[in-house]
Structure formats: C-alpha cells, structure tokens
C-alpha cells in the first residue's frame, strides 16, 4: 500500500538525519526535536519520529494571521531569515560601529538638516513668488 511506502521513506529520512547528527557529534539533544511543515499533518509521523530519534519530538506551527497551518512554516521561516540577513547586510555596509545613542543623535541631526533645507526651499519659493508679484506690479507702472 501507499502508506507503507511513505512510512518507509519517512523512516529512512529520519534515520539519515540521526546518522548525520551522530557524525557531527550531537549524541544527545536535550531539547528534543521539532518537526515543521506539511508532513506533521500526516497521522503517525510524530510517533515515528519519537521511535527513530528516541527523544522528545514536538510540532511547530506558525502563529501569524493567515498562516496558521504547518505547511507554511518553511515559507515563513525563509522570509524571516531573508529579512534578518538583509538587515545584517545593511548594518555591515556601515563599516563604522555605531552605538545606539550615537545612532539616535545621527538620526536627529539628519532630520534637523532636512527640515532646515525644507525651510530654505520654502523661503526661496515664497521669495520668488513675492519677487514675481512685485515685478508684475512695477511692470504695470513702467511699461
């Protein structure tokens, strides 16, 4: 039957994982194992994993709005990993280490410069408008 084939392949996967963990020197994992993804919905997988690993096994499901099903765990994890990696790359792009207080001061200085530039631009525009109105009025008298 199909279930026998699936059980054999899942058992094989778990045994390969167990062999790799032993090869890497992880004899005992005190926290146990966590199964994620759509496979956790298959009946008997949790018990099979406990039998193969001889350890505690639990399932993990995302707890985000719209993705409360286990088959979305991998996608959510990949997205979170990509976001974290992107933030790390942005932080390392600024080669000088910045303390939290210094970063806040830098942000304050930038916002002050931007607001000052905005004020200058507004004053220039108002000055240009005032100048052009004044020129029009003088133009009426001195044509």
Features:
2 strands, two-stranded parallel sheet, 143 residues, mainly alpha
Furnish the topology, listing elements before pairings:
Blueprint: H1 2-23, E1 33-35, H2 45-53, E2 57-59, H3 73-93, H4 100-141
Would you give an account of this structure?
With 143 residues, this protein is mainly alpha-helical. Helix content is 66%, strand content 4%. It has a two-stranded parallel ribbon with strand order 1-2. The radius of gyration is 32 Å and the shape is elongated. Residues 87-130 are annotated as: Disordered. It comes from marine sediment metagenome. This is Cell division protein FtsA. One of its GO terms (biological process) is cell division.
Coarse structural class = mainly alpha
The largest sheet has its strands arranged as 1-2
What's the alpha carbon Rg, rounded to whole Å?
32 Å
Report the end-to-end length measured between terminal Cα atoms. Answer: 102 Å
Main sheet properties: 2 strands, parallel
- What is the overall number of helices? 4
Assembly context of the chains: single chain
Number of strands: 2
Shape annotation: elongated
């Amino acid at each position: 039957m199909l279930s026998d084939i699936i059980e054999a392949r899942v058992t094989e996967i778990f045994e390969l994982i167990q062999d790799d963990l032993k090869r890497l020197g992880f004899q005992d994992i005190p926290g146990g194992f966590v199964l994620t993804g759509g496979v956790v919905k298959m009946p008997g997988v949790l018990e099979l994993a406990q039998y193969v690993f001889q350890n505690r096994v639990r399932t993990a499901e995302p707890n985000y709005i719209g993705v409360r099903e286990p088959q979305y765990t991998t996608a959510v994890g990949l997205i979170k990993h990509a976001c974290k990696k992107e933030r790390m790359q942005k932080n390392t792009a600024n080669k000088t280490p910045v303390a939290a207080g210094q970063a806040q001061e830098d942000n304050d200085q930038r916002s002050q410069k931007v607001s000052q530039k905005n004020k200058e631009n507004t004053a220039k525009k108002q000055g240009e408008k005032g100048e052009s109105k004044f020129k029009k009025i003088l133009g009426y008298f001195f044509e």
